[in-house]
Amino acid sequence: MSSKINSAEACLPLDSATEAAVLKMSLELEDAPLKPIKCYRLQPSRVARYASLPGCQKLTADNGIALTCVDEDGHTRETILLKEPDGNLQLTFKDAISWEDLALPDLVEAQFSADGPWLMALADRQGIEALAEVAFKMWVKMADEIPPSCASSFRRMLQTGPTNRLYAEGDKRVVRMPETELPDWQNTVMKNGKEVVVDVPRTVYALRAWDATNRQYVEVDATLEGAPTSDAGMEKWYVEWIRRLKSVLPSAWVDAMATSTRHTTHKDISKGLGGVEPMDVGAFSNRWTKLCLATTAPVVVGATARNTSAT
User: How far apart are CA 21 and CA 2, in angstroms?
Assistant: First the structure.
């Protein structure tokens, strides 16, 4: 594991009066009691990340308190307090997956490059791991819809290919990339005669979660269950998918969808496929669309089938 994942600044003590007051507090989370056992000054780097969350903007290195607790099941938890003139306020966040109230340290953090900043995800480790269990299966289910239920989604899948890691996509997912980097992961396409910005999925480089017992970060697996684990495996999966598509859909239409940025829908279903006709064929190209163009449908000879594709 990289030291950058589990590294954290030193935990500095609070003044004795503040510590005594904090340890006497009665706290709950989702109506379950938390018993305070230790506390310390919240590290500046964690302050900066937590302060990016809604409702936590007042948090600073001067007023942030990390409180280690034991829950009713005997598990060590940490919660964050905001020190105010009239008392200490517990800060919580509504999990974007479970909609339960979480302590801020419950939230997973994401990084999108080796030296990039860590950013708060909008769910805890349990939710992130549950998402990783189903995300690729959901992708495959949509990819195998014949005919495609959504032409725009179908085109995007052809152009972005499968992914084997959790990913950000604009502001639509529970993991988010830095806002300043969003424009680098967006395309402008024509839709209904107007330019529309489309977010391009960006896989995470690493995920981590706070270990309240050892007061350090631990790695969270970002791999999607059931997905190929290598780039070569991803390309192999994609080629096999294109073969399946082209065995039941017109190959020219699949290629046209892959290399276009827009389509029109006709009432006359004889046009295109079921009335869906790509309009600017050849306007888009990347590694995935090149694979799509180079892959052909299985050739049936008598009762046998011979698969042909570019290698």
Answer: 37
